[in-house]
Design a protein that fits this description.
- About 55% of the residues lie in helices and about 5% in strands.
- Strands 1-2-3 form a 3-stranded antiparallel β-sheet.
- The chain is mainly α.
- The chain has 2 domains: about 110 residues, Tyrosine recombinase, N-terminal domain (DNA polymerase, domain 1, Orthogonal Bundle), CATH 1.10.150.130; about 190 residues, Intergrase catalytic core (hpI Integrase, Chain A, Orthogonal Bundle).
- It has 14 helices and 3 strands.
- It is elongated, with a radius of gyration of 26 Å.
- The longest helix is centred in the N-terminal third of the chain and has 21 residues.
- One of its GO terms (biological process) is DNA recombination.
Length: about 325
Amino acid sequence: MHEMSENLVERLIEEFLTARATRKPSPHTLAAYRRDLRSVATLAGEASTPPLPLDRLMIADLSPRLLRAAFARFAAPRAAASVHRAWSSWNAFFTFLVAEAVVAGNPMPAVGRPRAPLPQPKPLRGDDTPEELLASVAREDGRQRDPWPERDVAVLALALCAGLRLSELLALRVSSVTGRAGERRVEVAGKGGRPRVVPVEPELDRVVVSYLDSRARRFGSRSVRPDAPLLVDRRGEPLRRGGLQYLVDSCFRRAGIGDRVPSGARLHALRHTFATRLAEDGASAAEIMRLLGHASLASSQTYIEVTAGQQRAAVRSNRTHRVLSGLVGAPPAG
């Protein structure tokens, strides 16, 4: 009986999540794993003969046929991206079980996997919005208890002019900005452990230097030692994820551009603005890939495709096209 209880799907899911927790994923990621695994397992139990509740479903019950049936029901009301994520969760789950010698093989290759659509870029809306944002935040706001415009502008500029992710910003040290004047660069600890180097133009360099000077005045020269975190809060402590998100949100509010920030984008809208402007100015997908630290060229290509679509839409909006349509009939067949 003890051996059987160890092979309950419900129990093995929790063992898998415990193992995953050692990798320090976000609580959101762990919750998504649990939700995807339990949802599909519940559907598999309902599709079995006879039906089994989740607390009685054994790992041996999960045949490829049963998993295909469960995923078919799971996919019906959901977007392809959600089904793709659930498939990946189950693939990781079975990979863990094979490594732990709980099962002999991974059945997921026999279960259809939808192609995940690439996420569409979500830059700030409005041609001059980034400039309005920076100009507004650079001004001291008397309504703030402890205004620190130098720090706030540095955060926005690193996202808008270097395309850094939230996690990459938090990982920066003072020494991450290296090189002599005119040849500065920022060394980034990228996603998935992929390091990259992004050039720092003189304007961004001056913003970072101004911020560090203001920080030394606030907290003393020791606060800007090379191994110190680059971004700190108003007490001189390292900025955390929630604090950085709140800072960026407050900058949007102070600039009055909240309605121009795509839903759910927040700081990522600044990175997407950086990439979109690269594409608008003629950068290739390979160049965008290197600067943003994308794992695949396809992710970078989306910025070029969106830009091309925007250009076509702009051309199409020209009222002259409507005049032409009245002058020229339908094109001849063939």
